[in-house]
Design a protein that fits this description.
Blueprint lengths: L1 H17 L5 H5 L3 H13 L2 E8 L2 E9 L4 E7 L8 H12 L7 E5 L3 H9 L2 E10 L11 E8 L5 H6 L1
Helix pairs in contact: 1-3
């Protein structure tokens, strides 16, 4: 089933992206079954999820919330990263949220590949949403911040001269 495949991609990718910033026990709790429960809860809250596959093998997931304009759960399997799948999913998600002028997403400041992708795709820093401090959070082993980015592409010189 598609949602179970999405949960496997979500689990694998989440574990890989959080292994350096969370305790091994906390990372291990993010099994495909646990991520399926999260996806089910998110769907009940109005999220829609899309699975990307290459040659029949699921390798990416992205979610959108039409109520809030949020893009989330953008994950690409570790072995499929660097192939442009993240950019395809991000653009797809933004177009799915065409009723929102400025869709937004959240990213950890230590996730440099994701930060580079979001900046390249027209997202700009908006605010710090959360701080994960090992001194205050038992699941954290590395200090990091969750950042909010909003879609706000820079105008071309031609667009600037039209205003």
């Amino acid at each position: 089933d598609q949602l179970n495949a999405a949960a496997r991609v979500y689990s694998e990718s989440w574990q890989q992206s959080h292994e350096a910033i969370c305790t091994p026990d906390f990372v291990a709790k993010h099994t495909p079954q646990a991520m399926r429960q999260r996806l089910d809860a998110d769907r009940a809250a109005g999220w829609a999820f899309y699975l990307h596959s290459t040659a029949g093998k699921p390798d990416g997931i992205v979610g959108v919330c039409h109520k809030t304009g949020e893009i989330g759960r953008l994950y690409v399997r570790p072995e499929s990263q660097g192939q442009g799948i993240g950019a395809l999913l991000l653009e797809f998600a933004r177009k799915k949220l065409s009723e929102h002028a400025a869709p937004h997403l959240f990213v950890l400041d230590v996730n440099l590949p994701a930060l580079a992708l979001y900046l390249r795709m027209g997202y700009r820093f908006d605010s710090v949403e959360k701080v994960y401090d090992p001194a205050e959070n038992p699941a954290a082993v590395q200090f990091c911040r969750e950042l909010k980015f909003i879609y706000a592409p820079r105008k071309t010189e031609e667009e600037k001269s039209e205003n």
